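Following up on my earlier message about NDP. Here are the inputs again, as you asked, copied directly from the submission form:
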Amino acid sequence: MKKKIEKVAVIGAGSWGTALAMVLADNGHEVRIWGHKEEQITEINTLHTNEKYLPSVPLPHNITGFSSLDEVLSEIETIILAVPTKAIREVLNKIANIRSEPLIIVHVSKGIEPDSLLRISEMIEQEMPADLLKDIVVLSGPSHAEEVSLRHPTTVSVSASNMETAEKVQDMFINQNFRVYTNPDIVGVEIGGALKNIIALAAGISDGLGYGDNAKAALVTRGLAEITRLGVKMGASPLTFSGLAGIGDLIVTCTSKHSRNWRAGNLIGQGHNLDEVLKNMGMVVEGVRTTKAAHQLAVKYDVKMPITSVLYDILFNGVNAKDGVDMLMARSKTNEMEDIANVFDDQNSIVHDKK
Ligand SMILES: NC(=O)C1=CN([C@@H]2O[C@H](COP(=O)(O)OP(=O)(O)OC[C@H]3O[C@@H](n4cnc5c(N)ncnc54)[C@H](OP(=O)(O)O)[C@@H]3O)[C@@H](O)[C@H]2O)C=CC1
Ligand SMILES: O=C(CO)COP(=O)(O)O
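Thanks, got it. Here's what our run produced:
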């Protein structure tokens, strides 16, 4: 079937915004990308590269850079919001001041806001006046920008409260290299994408300490258990966590050299200090702020999250990484399956409550 060609604006010219702009450009859309650094936009428009974020990757010529939000949004119905969680409110605020027509906002960020404990779709609902918001869609899954930009096979999920809009976004992005599934569980897709960064930091620390594959498999598996426990309490379907936005993204982020969260954890495990690691990364490491948020969520929802809790102590309370691992291994004995049964009990009670 022939694709509907659209004008789309990608807001955020970092690694992920640029890689997704390439997918859209490959699909023939008229792609605009907005960034707040004039010299980077000039580079995109003249050299057709974005060397800082995707070194040595030529960008398709149907991507045009904009440094004015006003201009990038003109005659646009759909934006792809690709800035770090920390910048979302600021950017939406600017958009809300410019815009007079409703937008479909596809967000691709993976975080939860500390203190407010809001998911990104909830932050968007708070920041954008209802008359400027047509729909919110989340796109998430195992997808490092570096590999997407090389057109390596990649799969992601999109979710929205309006599934027709999710399908529209699926059609906009899907191609031979970039396979897009829909999933009706927006809470699960957002929680899975955000919380896997915590476990990736922990996996990096484990590797940095010199531990091996057994430790990493333990972190991924028990990490998934605690993500699922919290996600279900927040209203997600447990099934989402065995999908792309759950185990899929956990695997890719905990095992890939591309992951900034894994790399940051790896350096911390080797003994480097958190502030120094974040300063030298030059790109966002979402898991640090999300650890703070998840630690608060675990208290709010009364959910056991031992990996998150130990990571919180390593990042913010000066606990030594090796001592943190020892603390996890010395926890009182428990039954693996009880956890799983509790998740399904919680899910049943959510279903009954809704009836
Ligand atoms: N990279 C990836 O593979 C993937 C990333 N994601 C998610 O996408 C989101 C964005 O990440 P990613 O692109 O990788 O991050 P990067 O660090 O690569 O890029 C972030 C971009 O946002 C810009 N930015 C930061 N603050 C502001 C602001 N206040 N106003 C305007 N622009 C701002 C940065 O500009 P500057 O250059 O000035 O810093 C940069 O262009 C994150 O939530 C991440 O988890 C999701 C899937 C894959
Ligand atoms: O979300 C990602 C891959 O799916 C990117 O992970 P990092 O932010 O750790 O690089």
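One observation from looking it over: The chain has 16 helices and eight strands. Hope that helps, and feel free to reply on this thread.
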